Amino acid sequence: xxxxxxxxxxxxxxxxxxxxxxxxxxxxxxxxxxxxxxxxxxxxxxxxxxxxxxxxxxxxxxxxxxxxxxxxxxxxxxxxxxxxxxxxxxxxxxxxxxxxxxxxxxxxxxxx
Length: 112
Fold this sequence. Notes:
This protein is α+β, with helices and mostly antiparallel strands. It has helices at about 20-40, 85-90, and strands at about 1-10, 40-45, 50-55, 60-65, 70-80, 100-105.
């Protein structure tokens, strides 16, 4: 099996959700990831924070990450799948899709 990374893209929320709403969202993510882990296809995951810097050539460092749109990358998961279509099928149940977000599925290159 190959490894694939799924990047979760969504718009930044306009308001902070209530604690019970946040816990319900966490439960959806745990259930989805748990389903992938139960198939022995889970490699790793993490959420991304809001602090960051952009490093460019010539030692130019700026605050970021900022995008011109309100879209942000909120996190990622790495899974094992037979091919890209198999990885896409795993992405179909991702909770970010139910709120208008997107999942970008990319193959992970292995250098030996």
